[in-house]
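input
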Amino acid sequence: MSNVENQPDELRCGGVATRAPEPELLQPREVPLGGPRAMLVGRTLPNRDRRMVGAWCFTDFYGPADITGQDGMQVSPHPHTGLQTVSWLLDGQVLHRDSLGNVQLIEPGQLNLMTAGRGISHSEESPVDHSAILHGVQLWVALPAEQRGVDPHFEHHGDLPVITTPEGTATVLMGSLLGGTSPAKTYTPLVGAELLINPGQAMRVPVEAGFEHAVLALSDITVNGREVATGDMLYVGMGCDDVTIGSSGEGRAMLLGGEPFEEEIVMWWNFVGRTHDEVAGARAEWERGREEADEQGRFGVVHGYHSPALPAPALPNAALRARGRTRNPS
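output
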């Protein structure tokens, strides 16, 4: 998924905290996906004060949206560097196309994982015969410096570990949880899982105490006894042996965690880098390749999408700078 803002903020992330912070409620801001009449998404990461959870650096939650008789999701070809995109649906279908030639439909319970590395471009769209409701999350994972230039590649996983307990079920997208390990490729120690909570139950989930964790509420839930509304995220910090998610009705949540990401990074538009020049260079290469439809260029060409590739926004007047992963490091 692209950050489609015409004037994207410089998102300054990275660096590790020196002590475990108190839990923080992170509330989303609304961002239009694809134009003035587009579906709105709620973006909880990066947030004003906390920009990352482990290597997770971007979280969008969208829907449920009734797209009956509409085009639904339509995100034209756009570039990425230095990150992985993690696509997860709760309802509906999305068709992925990329410059490596991959064409893959994703449905609920399946994972599309695209590692951008040194550079890739892709598009996302609701297929013509899409279902009525579109509902899902889009996540990004920052790649560590030594691997941010890996060759781009794409994975589709339709058979992920599902662990059932008396209180609910957990589907492991990335990393390991409750004895299940995802086949998805990771570059830093992290975990990502969808949790379904049975009505009136509270699911205790053992977690790595050396990870920091956050829970994105996909319905109204409680996290360690604290109420968290749909679309909000509760950052629970480090040093926890378990996280408990409860719900009066059927509950749904996304658990995200990982070792604190110690590097300082710059995230601007769809690029993750370390310096202004690195990001500016990626932007320039995208613009040149887009205008020339350069099959052999850094980002290649996406074939089969019905609209032209997205132009890159103008860079800000001030130089982009890598800064800490929180606004006020502690």
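quick obs: The helical segments are 276-292.
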